[in-house]
Amino acid sequence: MADKSNKAVHIPHLARELAAWFEQHRRPLPFRQHYDPYECWLAEVIFQQTRIEQGMPYYRRFLEKYPTVHQLAEASEEEVLNLWQGLGYYRRALNLLEGARQVVQEHQGKIPVDRTALLRIKGIGQYIASAVRAIAFNRPDVVIDGNVRRVMGRWFALEMPIDTPAAIQRIRDLGALFLRHLSPRLFNEALMEFGALQCTPRPRCETCPMQPWCMAFQQGRPTDYPRRKARRKPTAMPIDMYRLTDGRRIWLVRQDGDSLWKGLYLFPYHPKNAPVPYPRPAQPTATLTHVLTHRRIQAALWDVHLPADQLAALAIPAGRLVPIDEIHTYPLPRLMEKVLAVPLAFPLS
Ligand code: SF4
Prior knowledge:
Layout: H1 2-8, H2 11-25, H3 37-47, H4 52-65, H5 69-73, H6 77-84, H7 90-107, H8 115-119, H9 126-136, H10 146-155, H11 165-178, H12 184-197, H13 215-218, E1 235-245, E2 249-254, E3 265-266, E4 269-271, E5 286-291, E6 295-305, H14 308-313, E7 319-323, H15 334-340
Parallel strand pairs: 1-6
Antiparallel strand pairs: 1-4, 2-3, 2-7, 5-6
Helix pairs in contact: 2-12, 3-4, 3-9, 6-7, 9-12, 10-12
Bound molecules: iron/sulfur cluster.
């Protein structure tokens, strides 16, 4: 306990400096204009895994096409996935759509402020619930993203691995002490911004006003924090992927069920060396590697040229035979972008 109270002594100073820093450095981001709960939710979904610069065009396009939760609720899965294309984490887009429909059906289009009600909405977990409550509704929640973990891990030289439930609880408790000094909206926004701009993975300590109260800095080892558990390596996923074509049309398969790419389109693929009902050339055209959070995909790419009638006769579950020049009108994951960059092994007709 002595340890905890020692660390907490710095909180009024850190809170004061954080507010002053934010006043000077905050970026004029569009979702900081109205603090509309729908805009805030959308921003959190998009920016949770994506840098601001990369995600901003998506955020703007989304709001332009669906300015309200009602408009989003009426969109089709395919429209939403098309807008999302290139952002990755496609399940988020589908959850967002389902969540919007729920908000319209169950809450008359008003995003609820109650935490339990928020958590019942598809795609809203602890993080987004806290963000919407604290930032849109200014309720006393602590939003804990990667930036916040890093900053708190350094300010308080937290020794526990930062992704553990114990560390998250500790950060929440420390955060609650800040809320005695700063409003929830100001504290949470400022802390995330501070992590994004100042206390970055390579911290800018030389220009940082927190030096006197930052324990990691005082110990002379800011980059030793936050502490991390050893990462699990992504599991290898070797596959054979087939471009089945007559040179004019090609088979695509809509991914369903438990697929990593639910709702998106890929060329037919199978576990490596699985028997397949179509002929296979002697050599693959290319072999590609694509890494997702938990999977390392090694795809051997096989180009199979068939006469039009044989091609059309193939029975491919959930498959669609589409003109090659229309592939890009379907929602595709990043892996497909890599695959499409490899020229076919034979000329198009
Ligand atoms: S002194 Fe360095 S480690 Fe500490 S808060 Fe500032 S930038 Fe981060």
